[in-house]
Amino acid sequence: MFKNKYFWLALIFILLAFLGGLTFAYLRPLAEPLNVVVNPTATVSQPTLQTAAVVPAPVVQSTATATPLENCGHTGVSTTLFLARDITQSNWPPGADVIRFIRTDYSQKKVTILAIPRDLWLITPVLADQNIDHSRLGLVFYRVEQDTLGDIKEKYLAATNALAQTLYDNFEVTPDNYIFFEMTYFAQAIDQLGGLNVFIPRDISYAGNTFVSGSQNLTGERALMYSRLLPGNELSEGWDRLDRQDIVLKALRDKVLDPTYFLKIPGLVDKFWDNILTDFSPALIKDMICMLKEVPSENISMVEVDRSMITGPGPDSSMIPDVDMVKKFIQDTLAP
User: Which H or E element spans position 224?
Assistant: First the structure.
């Protein structure tokens, strides 16, 4: 599925580079941390097609006695929740389109990026005030954002926290940090970098948008459209869309690593700042950039909640997951 290991790693690297150009108190988080309520005794009803009891993943105890190696000022493992969305799509409420966990193992110099489909049909205690007991995962973000008073950053924080809480309520996983951003400005950044040179492996056409196979230069708008086209439903086309996203982000990575274009990144900070929310501090951003440079390609792995973990279609164009299977897979992937 993930033909290029650098897909979301490239985007995260670029965002961290943008944020690294900001001048703030060095150790102070740029936004409030998440407040996920961890209650191991809570019980909630799962979707109709999920009947098995949830079994916690076993905790594997390490037998190693050596002192963990320190790299870029850290040891051990950290997990970041990475969310993005595109508000330009008018045919569906703008929820979180991209949902990823990034597991960074500083001691082993390894990075794992775990993709979670936005359309998983999950229990949603966070939407109890709206009388919604189940929802597509990505729409949790939209519903809480719309229901929250305050400025845009307060809405982003409440919505991000609600999605993180939903992931905990279903799979009992929590991130150490988070990044959220609006994909619209990602397209503008591509234009400022002169577009992207991509190779499109096959023709694709949908809703008046046609992409012909072959090498070509895509504007930011076209690159974003190519990465988001969904000719069918999520079950039939969702994974192919992830492949197309790989193509776009590989092209972006190639461009920003070219010193000629990398010098333009600081000039994009102002454009992105109002549309990014993260609890990273400038110090941690610096360390993460250091780590992303240090990790060899063979230590970057891309994994996903895939078709084998989906039991069938659900309401509202969603996917019914095998909750036990998904839960074990996520916990095993993110384990310290």
Answer: helix 220-228
DSSP class of residue 232? S
Give CA 123 to chain center in angstroms. Answer: 20
The torsion angle over the Cα atoms of residues 94, 87, 116 and 174, rounded to 10 degrees, is -80
CATH of the domain at 152: 3.30.420.590
Full-prediction pTM beyond 0.90?
no
Task: Name the residue among 265, 230, 225 with its Cα closest to residue 248.
Answer: 225
User: Can you tell me the distance from the alpha carbon of 336 to that of 324, in angstroms, rounded to the nearest whole number?
Assistant: 20
Residue 144 in domain: yes
Q: Which residues pair with 177 in a beta bridge?
A: 80
Please give the angle made by the CA atoms of 195, 239 and 173, to the nearest 5 degrees: 105
Q: Residue 209 falls within a domain, yes or no?
A: no
Give phi and psi for 232, each to the nearest 5: -115, -150
Question: How many beta carbons lie within 10 A of that of residue 66, not counting itself?
Answer: 6
Amino acid code (one letter) for 11 = L
DSSP-derived secondary structure for 59-74:
PPPP---SPPPPBTTB
User: Has residue 88 been placed in a domain?
Assistant: yes
Helix (H) or strand (E) holding 242: helix 234-256
Task: Domain of residue 90: give its range.
Answer: 7-50+71-184+268-334
Quote the pLDDT of residue 249.
66
Greater confidence, 31 or 124? 124
Q: Is residue 62 one of the residues assigned to a domain? A: no
Burial profile 113-149: b = 16 or more Cβ within 10 angstroms, e = fewer? bbbbbbbbbbbbbbbeeeeeebbbbbbbbbbbbeebe
Looking at 16-20, 26-30, 86-90, which range is the least confident one?
A: 16-20
Q: Are 141 and 46 in contact (CB under 8 A)?
A: no
Rounded to 5°, angle at Cα 59 from 70 and 78: 35
Any residues with CB less than 8 A from the CB of 266 and at least 6 apart, and which? 21
How many domains would you assign to the chain?
Answer: 1
Taking Cα atoms as reference points, which of 94, 105, 108, 101 lies closest to residue 146? 94
What is the per-residue pLDDT across 213-260, written as a single tens digit (0 to 9) for each?
Answer: 999 999 988 988 888 777 665 555 666 776 787 677 667 766 765 666
